[in-house]
Every structure is written in structure tokens, then in C-alpha cells.
């Protein structure tokens, strides 16, 4: 069955996610209000500015709706700002968050000089071919609970992790030609709805 995937479209890099999901054969819904969440099989929270997205999520309690869905095992993938929003603990910040993943995240964690860069990551779950990853003022996970699986690290920092139905990357997989990260998320969706 063709899957219907929501992309949170309040702010940030949502159009690029839409394109990749369509290339993988999904129906895509741009989520701007709570009612757009109805009937989706999975949700992507894009990169952007996590404080801005967080403020917009408080309107109409859309964040709480998303949190409920996440707790009911809806597959949710947060990239960059999305990783920040999924985390329970954000170092030195009381900004709004969805509070779903047992992770401690640090924002803008790669320093000012190298704020943005590209690299090739080893992601064993995706086979031996390295995954091209674009980092833009990226966070990383400083700590994860034992129930969180680490999918990839870069220079000793956790940049890709999964906790059951929740997936989080510090990088932007939607900005490369490599579809494998989105395909991995789609596999999670297909398993969930099988
Ligand atoms: N630095 C941003 C934040 O802290 C995240 C950057 C991104 O999503 N590319 O929200």
C-alpha cells in the first residue's frame, strides 16, 4: 500500500523532504495544523530553527498531538532541528520540545568555524557504502539511554540514532542524492503498518 507521510511544514527544509519522499513513491502531506496529522503513516520533522518550530508547535497544541502520536508508536523522523525537538533534554535551554526521545542533545555543537560541512558517514545499518551527510549548524547527542540505538557517530559524537519508532539525525539527508536514509525510515513505516 502507498504510504502517506506527513512533513511538518511550519519552517525550515520541508520542501526537500517532500521531494525525496515523492521520489520513493510516497504520498506527502505538508503538516501545518493538527487536522493535517489525520491519516498519516509517519511524520518527518525537518531541519530549521528549533526554537521557531517549537513556538509554532505550541499554537493549537499541535506539538501535544504529535507527542501523543509518537507515544502511540507512529514512526517519526527528526532531522537536525527535528532531532533537537524530539529530545527530552536540551543542554542549557528550556525551549519547547516534544520530549519523546531519551536523549541529551547539544545545539550548534560543532563550533562556529566549521558550522556547516559535508562528510561521509559509516552507517552499518545501511551497509558498507558510506552515507553522504550535510551538517548545518548541527546538534549532536551527548548522551543516550540504553534503549536508544546508535546508528552512526562522527568524530566520537552521536549523529544518528533510533529509539523504537523514533529516528533522529543531526545531518540533513534530504540535501543529498542518497535516498537510503529516507528509505530506512520508510522501512520503519512499512514494518509498523504491516
Ligand atoms: N541550529 C539549529 C537549531 O538549533 C538547527 C540547525 C538545522 O536544523 N540545520 O535549531
Please provide a written account of the structure:
The chain is of the alpha/beta class. The chain has a single domain (4-193), classed as Rossmann fold (3-Layer(aba) Sandwich), CATH 3.40.50.880. Helix content is 25%, strand content 32%. The chain has helices spanning 14-23, 50-58, 62-71, 81-86, 180-192, and strands spanning 4-8, 27-31, 42-45, 76-79, 87-90, 101-106, 116-121, 131-136, 140-144, 149-154, 157-163, 166-169. The model has no long low-confidence stretch (mean pLDDT 96). Bound molecules: glutamine.
Q: What proportion of the residues form beta strands (DSSP E)?
A: 25-35%
> What's the overall geometry?
globular
Q: In whole angstroms, how far apart are the ends?
A: 10 Å
Structural class: alpha/beta
Query: Ranges with pLDDT <50 over ≥5 residues?
Result: none
Spell out the key features of this protein:
194 residues, alpha/beta, 5 helices, binds glutamine, globular, 25% helix, Rossmann fold
Helix-strand layout with pairing:
Layout (H helix, E strand, L loop, with lengths): L3 E5 L5 H10 L3 E5 L10 E4 L4 H9 L3 H10 L4 E4 L1 H6 E4 L10 E6 L9 E6 L9 E6 L3 E5 L4 E6 L2 E7 L2 E4 L10 H13 L2
Parallel strand pairs: 1-2, 1-3, 3-4, 4-12, 5-6
Antiparallel strand pairs: 6-9, 7-8, 10-11, 11-12
The structure holds glutamine (GLN).
Amino acid at each position: 500500500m502507498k504510504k502517506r507521510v506527513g512533513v511538518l511544514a511550519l519552517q525550515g527544509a520541508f520542501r526537500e523532504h517532500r521531494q525525496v519522499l515523492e521520489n520513493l513513491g510516497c504520498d506527502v502531506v505538508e503538516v501545518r495544523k493538527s487536522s493535517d496529522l489525520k491519516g498519516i503513516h509517519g511524520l518527518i520533522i525537518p531541519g530549521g530553527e528549533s526554537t521557531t518550530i517549537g513556538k509554532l508547535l505550541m499554537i493549537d497544541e499541535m506539538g501535544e498531538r504529535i507527542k501523543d502520536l509518537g507515544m502511540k508508536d507512529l514512526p517519526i523522523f527528526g532531522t537536525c532541528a527535528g532531532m533537537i525537538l524530539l529530545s527530552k533534554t536540551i543542554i542549557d535551554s528550556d525551549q519547547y520540545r516534544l520530549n519523546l526521545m531519551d536523549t541529551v542533545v547539544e545545539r550548534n555543537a560543532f563550533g562556529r568555524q566549521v558550522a556547516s560541512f559535508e562528510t561521509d558517514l559509516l552507517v552499518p545499518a545501511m551497509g558498507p557504502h558510506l552515507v553522504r551527510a550535510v551538517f548545518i549548524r548541527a546538534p549532536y547527542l551527548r548522551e543516550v539511554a540504553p534503549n536508544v540505538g546508535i546508528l552512526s557517530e562522527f568524530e566520537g559524537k552521536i549523529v544518528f540514532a533510533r529509539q523504537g519508532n523514533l529516528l533522529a539525525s543531526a545531518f540533513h539527508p534530504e540535501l543529498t542524492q542518497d535516498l537510503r536514509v529516507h528509505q530506512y525510515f520508510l522501512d520503519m513505516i512499512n514494518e509498523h503498518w504491516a
